[in-house]
Amino acid sequence: MTILAEAGQTVRWRGGYGRLWSAAVLSRFGDAVRNVALPLVAAGLTTSPFLLSLVSAAGYLPWLVFGLLGGALADRVDRRRAMWTVDVARGLLVAAFATALAFGQAHLAVLAVLAFALTTLQTLFDNAATAILPTLVPRTALPSANARLMTGQALAGTFLGAPAAGLLVTAGVALPFAVDAATYLVAAALIASLPRSAVAVASRPPGSTLRSEIAVGVRRLWRDRLLRGGCLANLLGNLVIGGLQALLVLIITRWAGASDVVFGLVLAAYGAGGVVG
Which residues lie below 8 Å from residue 189, measured CB to CB, with a gap of 6+? Predict the structure, then answer.
């Protein structure tokens, strides 16, 4: 309790943390908007549960394939530059997709490629964001800083982004993706303005390689019973939840005949249950 009290007193919004918090929360809002709109677009192209599951799986697969690589790369590069570069790339990708939708050009294969590309870039961004936080706040403030960051992201993604997406889709199928692209670009500008102290790169032993660093991380994870159990539990839980979410759009909008707005509200309630639990 003493540490948390001290952390709450020492966290300052100036000096970079406020910009990182704003960028992360803004990006999470955009992600939530897109995550609701994407299955709605896919359901408008097909009613096949298998094809919808493929699009959904494309958004999860990069964490299994590139998650460890993203963590190792985040320790080798200028994290600030990596984060804003990734956000610019994601903003341009989503903007291009929004333009295609506005002209009536949408294909399931494009949706799957977009989901895969965005999540692949996210593996580097999220790992860099985790590593950059200790360079922006004192060590004693990390618990409070992390709590505020996670709370802001949960509120923006769960209680604001999902319901907003349902309303945006009714105004135009391309609008949610345009909003998502804008959040990425604004977040990139905020991250690019972070102080130079945030660019420190972790020191490594001479001759260290990406492969060896990943191997060290895997061995350390496997030897820690708590971490190993938590990762396996998350893996199994995500497999089940991912399968449910892939079909939720069909269940709500096609089989139950509800509107896109209701779909967004259901996802918001779904996420709220996870936050409360």
Answer: 84
Give the number of residues written for the chain. 277
* Helix 108-132 and helix 61-74, axial crossing angle in degrees, nearest 10: 30
- The tokens for 162 are 């999902």
Do 235 and 42 touch, CB atoms closer than 8 A? Answer: no
CATH number, domain containing residue 90: 1.20.1250.20
If one counts the domains in the chain, the total is: 1
Token pair belonging to 190: 């905020």
Cβ(179)–Cβ(26) under 8 Å?
no
Q: For residue 3, what are its two tokens?
A: 């540490």
> What is the distance between the alpha carbons of residues 12 and 19, in angstroms, rounded to a whole number?
11
Distances in Å between the alpha carbon of 240 and those of 37, 65, 146, 211, 236?
21, 19, 28, 31, 6
List the domain range (segments joined by +) for residue 19. Answer: 2-199+208-276
Mean pLDDT of 157-167: 77
Q: Please give the average per-residue pLDDT across 152-165, as a whole number.
A: 80
pLDDT tens digit sequence for 117-157: 998 998 888 888 888 888 888 888 888 888 888 888 888 87
